[in-house]
Amino acid sequence: GDSVTQMEGPVTLSEEAFLTINCTYTATGYPSLFWYVQYPGEGLQLLLKATKADDKGSNKGFEATYRKETTSFHLEKGSVQVSDSAVYFCALKMNTGFQKLVFGTGTRLLVSP
Amino acid sequence: DVKVTQSSRYLVKRTGEKVFLECVQDMDHENMFWYRQDPGLGLRLIYFSYDVKMKEKGDIPEGYSVSREKKERFSLILESASTNQTSMYLCATKDRGNEKLFFGSGTQLSVL
Questions:
Q1: pLDDT tens profile B45-71
Q2: Can you say how many angstroms the Cα of residue A21 is from the centroid of all Cα atoms in its chain?
Q3: Cβ contact (<8 Å) for B101 and A44?
Q4: Contacts of A101 in chain B (CB under 8 A)
């Protein structure tokens, strides 16, 4: 079935470091891809998305590019802040049927001053 | 902005009890979802509903049921709580034709 694989965390960085969180997917068709973020004590919220190959999603300094050839959607940020500390979830949605989201296991990011 | 409210932030119940988790949304969204979140497993879909009185099983429906009598309210029911149902439960909503999910802040349920 459709699935998403994320790198295990926690990812520990110092403020202003470069961030990459890897995400790869397996799907029978051409899904839409998402990154959701969960700040401490809160529910998930959509960070960015891409709906077709080579699309780049971006928001709040984060970027991810939909790579069909490598079935990947890695999340990047050039300079992280302490306030970026959260759990990041990669997800996919097939564009047929009911279109439910399939989530990865989440990657915790810890940014220290 | 959309508001998704879950009735309790923390809940402690005993094995065998019947447990109700409530979720209310204020934006007239057709679709509502219940997920559970466990370390190392991410989010797993329990049940979802695409209309009033309609429900569909997700990936892990065993031991759970749901009720959607009104459009704004989606309830998750644990008929007889067990310790392996200790988890964080997240409710989410989505407007038809829109891809974005809106989540509540979750209910941490402990079954002792």
A1: 999 999 998 999 998 999 999 999 999
A2: 7
A3: yes
A4: 45, 101
